[in-house]
Amino acid sequence: MAATAYLERASDGAYDGIAPDADWREEVLRLARERDAVILAHNYQLPEIQDIAHHTGDSLALSRIAAASEASTIIFCGVHFMAETAKILAPHKTVLIPDERAGCSLADSITADQLREWKSQHPGAVVVSYVNTTADVKAETDICCTSSNAVDVVASIPADREVLFLPDQFLGAHVKRETGRENLRIWAGECHVHAGINGPELAARAAENPDADLFIHPECGCATSALYLAGEGAVPAEQVKILSTGDMITAARGTSAKSVLVATEVGMLHQLRKAAPEIDFRPVNDRASCTYMKMITPTALLRCLRENLDEVHVDAETARRAQGAVQRMIEIGQPGGGE
Ligand code: SF4
């Protein structure tokens, strides 16, 4: 494949201009072999990125693969905090993200300074952070959690200790409801994509598809409404499943439903359809697409492999402190799935 100038998309500046054709595939895989690199892709990536990756999954599963892989370079096709988590767990490897501008509105909803200030108002509280946080915030955290084990992580903390839970208010509300814990304080952060999937939309889709299962990510603005609607009998409780993205794949393989409504980022549909092609998967909101995730374009991946860019760095002291919190997350409950 001839060297090409990388264009930038007018709408969002993402690297653009190279089509994901057979030449592109061949070149990407050749360069990955040459660089001793493993390509990891999150479930919300573009289908062509998911398809060329050596491994596709949720953020925690990918971080664990990054740490265990024998490859010396990790190409993390996801958003920046995920690549940072891989670097924290695999500090001696080179970690590259195809576009370092791929951020996350949820991770950006709290800074390390804000967390230090919150901690100073609640001395003695245990800090539990969802994995969607920056390395600086993880370094100020006692235990990280995923959406799969958030309830177990909070339940593992002595009942009389105050807990600061961040940054996602919807996941926090889910944990508070499940644990019945009054001394859980919740940071008012949210992901703009998940918050956009709301209760009225879910109720309307459920009414149109009365026999469908509902797979709902607990970060969704509709998670609370889904449980409320189930309680009211508007949506049958046995059809509502609150699942991390990793657990959605397992549930797709196990369900007898012919159709499933999916409440999370639309990239997830690609893996679900591959896992269970006989099921009709439909998004609750087909506009729920994360622009940050979609910055990892075929052009960006090729640029990354050709030019060894963008490298992810976490300073040694931050990584050491953050690693303790991430390690405790891996040890508690069911560590199968992050976002
Ligand atoms: S979907 Fe939301 S939580 Fe996930 S990466 Fe995008 S902005 Fe962050």
Kindly summarize this structure in a few lines.
The chain has 339 residues and is of the alpha/beta class.
Give the neighbour order of strands across the main sheet. 4-3-5-6
**Sequence stretches where pLDDT stays below 50 over 5 or more residues:** none
Summing up helix and strand content along with how strands pair, one would put the structural category as alpha/beta
CATH superfamily of the largest domain: NadA-like
- Work out the helix count: 15
Average per-residue pLDDT, rounded, comes to: 91
> How many beta-strand elements?
14
Over all CA atoms, what is the radius of gyration? 20 Å
Percent helix, as a range, is 40-55%
- What is the CA-CA span between the terminal residues? 35 Å
What ions, cofactors and ligands are bound? Answer: iron/sulfur cluster
- CATH first level of the largest domain: Alpha Beta
Task: Give the name of the CATH architecture of the largest domain.
Answer: 3-Layer(aba) Sandwich
CATH topology of the largest domain, what is it called?
Answer: Rossmann fold
Number of domains: 3
Q: Which shape, going by the Cα principal axes? A: globular
Beta-strand percentage range: 15-25%
Largest β sheet strand count, sense and barrel closure: 4 strands, parallel
Secondary-structure element order, N to C: EEHEHEHEHEHEHEHEHEHHEHEHEHEHH
- How would you classify the quaternary structure? single chain
